[in-house]
Amino acid sequence: MEVAKVLDPFVDTSNQPIISVVIHPLALLNVSEHWMRLKLILNSVNAVAYGGLLGKHKGRDVEIHNTFEMVVDDMVIDSDYLVDRVERVRQLYKGLDVIGWYTNGKSLTEENKTFHFQFTEKYECPYILILDPLDKTCERLPFRLYESGIDSLSRVYFKQVTFKVGNDPIESIGIDLLARVADVAKVTPDTGINNVTNVPGTSNVVPHENSWKLNEVSETAETLQENHQAVQMLSNRLNVLRDYVDAVMRGELPVNHARLREIRALLVRLPHAVSSNGPFGDNTNHSGYDLEDQTVLLRQASDVCLTSLLAGLTRTMHSLHGWLNREKTVSVFQDSIGKFGVVTAQRGKCFRNPPKVITNAFEDDVMSS
């Protein structure tokens, strides 16, 4: 998928070499999720997110795979946090390096340029990815990518570049599932008519004869949706029955014994357990379960709790056993030192009463092993 370039009047686009940039969906999703999280925390659409771009840069071929977040306070980067985070990220993602940073906004601003100069003091990264979360045109992805460089006159320029969204087979599975479940553009299977509201100033696009297939939902998502709807419907019906019984008990509605018997028969079928006092506060078992069934359910719950307790006890015994073994090993070495002395590697001498430093060194070696 290629994203069209939108000209920025503040960016130089003249006589610059062409590059090939591929951004993976994970990076785009991370940037969107970061801004959305800040928006919910601050309860404001003016939230600004900052982070770094991880990828590969080979000549004029650039590939952005992932991102990481940065701590920025009043347009000042937390250098210690940034250096520590980059080192950890490099250890985690072998082969990826910092090639740029991201933020959100309409376009590249003077503040972004100042921040870019501050960021490049730590890492040489020419790329800036900007998310426009308030873009509602839906004609393209709300992302813009900029490249910085130095021209022949030693002037710093910023150029907007096009990029493609590429993904590997593993990413395709997750992205395809998200695209289907999101159900952004619903298409009626019968007629193939697009249900998206027409945007003023745009022409109607005739859908492909098989375009309704794009709206397919995975089997897992479809099953979960059906189960959710069924449980929700059951809950609503039970609330109606509860309100009816409450109204009868308050005398607001006449007593209908046939209807109450049907309600009781339904409650008997529901898989629930009650206390010995019953759900109505008396000593009668109104649930339809006999004491044997309730005993089985309680026994199963007790077995689960007992299994968890035994697992915790086993972990505790394992830790205690390891500690005792280490203590025993240290004690054996101390006895050996007292009886036979210690032969030092530097001088080749034997000490009957070794210095305390040598004893501590042996203890440290044993404890570390």
From TrEMBL:
PANTHER family, alphabetized: COP9 SIGNALOSOME COMPLEX SUBUNIT 6, EUKARYOTIC TRANSLATION INITIATION FACTOR 3 SUBUNIT F-RELATED
Entry's Gene Ontology cellular component terms: COP9 signalosome
Domain annotation MPN: ranges: 21-152
Name this protein carries in UniProt: COP9 signalosome complex subunit 6
GO molecular function, one term: metallopeptidase activity
Family from the record: Belongs to the peptidase M67A family. CSN6 subfamily.
